[in-house]
Amino acid sequence: MFDSEFIKRLKSSDEEAFKMLVDSFSEKVLNLCYGFVRNTEDANDLSQEVFLEAYFSIKNFREESSVSTWIYKIAVNKSLDFIKKQKRQKRAGNVVSLSWTETEDREIIIPDNQTPDSIYQEKERIQILKQAMDELPESQRVVLNLSSIELFSYEEIFEITGKSISSVESLIFRAKKNLEKNLKDFFEKEINRKFKD
């Protein structure tokens, strides 16, 4: 579908071709942005920015990668820029909560046979995992998010991030080790707190 002829149409500002591009990637881009910012409204805004940038910069697209990889790379960069901006505002005293504990979650499908207590426990486990991931260094969090949550292959992550496949493998390995440590530290603190109470 996204052959050289289609790319030519995009570069000539063909509105129908651009609509096809948006229709094809809007859901994936939205989910990708959400995976980083954890807020539906922000993810929607970012996905719109992604397609705006794609529209205005398509003429510079050199076709060294696929259109999908190019779009996803824009989405990752926009999301990371957003997070950095939020952190700068926090440091400047403009408190903007980016904590996953205070933003909405993706819809969680709970089997009908689960009890209210088990549903609560499941949501709590997901929340703890998000907090542990949030403490990872940015490079590790990016590749782990792309690999484990968005299910991109190592080759796709290499194309999106520009990191070599060996670097991607190393970062994912370290991310999983650090995530394990973060979760262990969290539960040890919780156990100590409960014994003190």
Q: Report the total helices.
A: 8
Cα end-to-end separation: 61 Å
CATH class of the largest domain: Mainly Alpha
Mean model confidence by pLDDT: 79
**Topology-level CATH name of the largest domain:** Rna Polymerase Sigma Factor, Chain: A
The radius of gyration computed from the alpha-carbon positions, rounded to a whole number of angstroms, is 19 Å
Question: What percentage of residues falls in helices of 4 or more residues?
Answer: over 70%
Q: What sort of overall outline do the alpha carbons produce when their principal axes are compared?
A: elongated
| Major sheet characteristics | none
N-to-C SSE string, H for helix and E for strand: HHHHHHHH
Total domain units: 2
Question: What proportion strand?
Answer: under 5%
Number of strands: 0
As residue ranges, the low-confidence spans are 93-111
What features would you describe in this structure?
The chain has 197 residues and is mainly α. The protein folds into 2 domains: 1-100, Rna Polymerase Sigma Factor, Chain: A; 108-197, Winged helix-like DNA-binding domain superfamily/Winged helix DNA-binding domain (Arc Repressor Mutant, subunit A, Orthogonal Bundle). The chain has 8 helices and no strands. It has helices at residues 4-11, 15-37, 40-57, 67-91, 116-134, 138-149, 154-161, 165-196. Helix 2 (15-37) crosses helix 4 (67-91) and helix 6 (138-149) crosses helix 8 (165-196). The protein starts with a helix and ends with a helix. The model is unreliable at 93-111 (pLDDT under 50).
